[in-house]
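Archive record
______________

***
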Amino acid sequence: MADSKNTMARLDRLEGAIVHVTDVIVLQGERLDVLRDEVRVLRDEVRMTREALSERLDRLISVTMQERTFGIERIASIENRVAKLEERIGR
């Protein structure tokens, strides 16, 4: 009889421990779901930021290339005008 009561007490404690472990697992699962959603949001924000930076960099490269081309063409035009002026004045 004493062994039966002792066994029942141990089973009750074991059942309580299993319930507690189950509650912890459920709680951790809920927290992981929240973290997963937050990671998704952060991933999307990083992707959008990366795309925006890429677009801005592309525009900067384009403008820089245009400006360099325009600058070279402008210098060439000035040199041509100077050369024509020099020819007119007899140099």
Observations:
- Residues 2-89 form the longest helix (88 residues).
- The radius of gyration is 39 Å.
- Residues 10 and 31 are 31 Å apart (CA to CA).
- The helical segments are 2-89.
